[in-house]
Amino acid sequence: MIVGQPDPIPDPPSAPPPTGPFPSAPPQDPPPYPPQQAPAGAPEPPASEDPPPHRWGIGAYVLVEILFLGSSFLIAALLADPEGPSVAAVILGLSVPTVLAAATALLITRVRGNGPRIDLGLTWTARDVAAGLLWGLGGLVVSVPASLVYVAVVGPDNATTAVGQAFDGIRVGWPVALGVFVLVAFVAPLCEEIVYRGLLWGAVTKHGANRWVAFAITTLLFAMAHFELTRTPLLLVVALPIGLARVFTGRLPASIVAHQVNNLLPALGLALALTGGVPASL
């Protein structure tokens, strides 16, 4: 040590090395109960928002179609009349198979799936109804000119529908005609949409197809399932906006409403024809 210089100040003792990965983290209180054992009355963790996949597929659609065709042939055989079909037989032949097919589709979703609200997207909202009205009215801009072209190609005498042919020559009063109008304009579209853009759509997407593939398949089968060969191209045009309503909303009610809007004019023409107001071919 040199005389005249102050003694050096010793360095402060260094801090002890950290003993854990987060030495600066404040101590945490222990959990009020073991992680694997919640006390009585404690809220359960929220369940997953995604429902389980439904357990029905193409076979469900095939079954529904078999029921539709089988009941149609059975009613036609039981109510056959050599003098021609009665109005009751025609109404039963049009309504029972269609309603039976839709009811079976709904039952399948309950027994083998999560119910129609989840599996078929059958949840009604004002937004979906508005979208269906827009798609339906927009579809008329396309389907009405397409119908005029169809009449010009096949001729007025051949430009009729299977429903119009079934009621050909039948005259009824306004109460029955109003019932037929409701059947064609509202009931039939509801049931057909449940089967095609509900059940068939869900069966196609279950196997990994996207919504555009489902749109193409359901549109084609919908047009072909009417069993009217000459009208199939026209039915394809008619089905386009109905299917697009399903594509862009992701739910069934929009396509139901669009289909009902599309059927309003034909249903009105048929009701007038049944009362003798216009020819049945219109």
UniProtKB/TrEMBL annotation:
Residues 177-265 form the CAAX prenyl protease 2/Lysostaphin resistance protein A-like domain. One of its GO terms (biological process) is proteolysis. Residues 7-50 have a biased composition (Pro residues). The chain crosses the membrane at residues 58-80, 86-108, 129-152, 172-191, 212-227, 233-249, 261-280. Pfam families: Rce1-like. One of its GO terms (molecular function) is endopeptidase activity. The keyword Ion transport does not apply. Residues 1-52 are annotated as: Disordered. Keywords: Hydrolase, Membrane, Protease, Transmembrane, Transmembrane helix. It comes from the Bacteria. PANTHER family: CAAX AMINO TERMINAL PROTEASE, CAAX AMINO TERMINAL PROTEASE FAMILY PROTEIN. This is CAAX protease family protein. The lineage of its organism: Bacteria, Bacillati, Actinomycetota, Actinomycetes, Pseudonocardiales.
